[in-house]
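Q: I'm building a small set of examples for a reading group on sequence design. Run inverse folding on the following structure and report the sequence directly after it, with nothing in between.
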């Protein structure tokens, strides 16, 4: 008897062997719980998920540094496997890199209001799209490093820019 789940979920829930469940886990994590499967702008929605996760962490009093570090490590562990599983270099539906990058963009900023979050979001998306040095070179690398590395660079640049702007603006107005 071939017991397949509802057709909408056939790609998510294969029936059978344990390695099938490892594939499900890789798909779940790499697409950040299937947000990457959204038909339009999955990277943007992944970044928005990162903003949402950051707010949830702040509201719950959970240290965002620990979660961000864990998500980056998890991203490096699954991104290369996802590339092999999907048989495609840097598939657009793998958004764990955007989520981790957005969280990294927001770490340790001196202020967190809605304007800062919006500016961080747009800076990160622009830098992720335009790939300033060395992000473009890193993206060409194979596996997890290529998939995660360019977003880490974009996130670090975003964070540095925001640190400078916010601190200079703060000292100027004090």
């Amino acid at each position: 008897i071939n017991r397949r789940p509802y057709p909408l979920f056939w790609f998510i829930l294969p029936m059978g062997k344990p390695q099938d469940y490892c594939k499900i886990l890789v798909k779940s994590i790499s697409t950040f719980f299937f947000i990457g499967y959204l038909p339009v702008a999955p990277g943007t929605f992944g970044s928005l998920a990162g903003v949402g996760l950051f707010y949830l962490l702040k509201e719950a009093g959970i240290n965002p540094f620990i979660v961000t570090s864990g998500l980056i490590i998890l991203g490096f562990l699954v991104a290369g496997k996802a590339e092999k599983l999907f048989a495609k270099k840097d598939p657009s539906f793998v958004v764990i890199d955007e989520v981790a990058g957005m969280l990294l963009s927001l770490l340790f900023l001196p202020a967190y209001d809605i304007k800062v979050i919006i500016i961080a979001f747009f800076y990160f998306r622009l830098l992720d799209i335009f790939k300033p040095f060395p992000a473009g070179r890193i993206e060409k690398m194979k596996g997890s490093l290529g998939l995660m590395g360019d977003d880490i660079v974009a996130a670090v640049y975003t964070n540095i820019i925001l640190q400078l702007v916010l601190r200079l603006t703060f000292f100027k107005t004090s």
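Confidence is low (pLDDT under 50) at residues 1-7.
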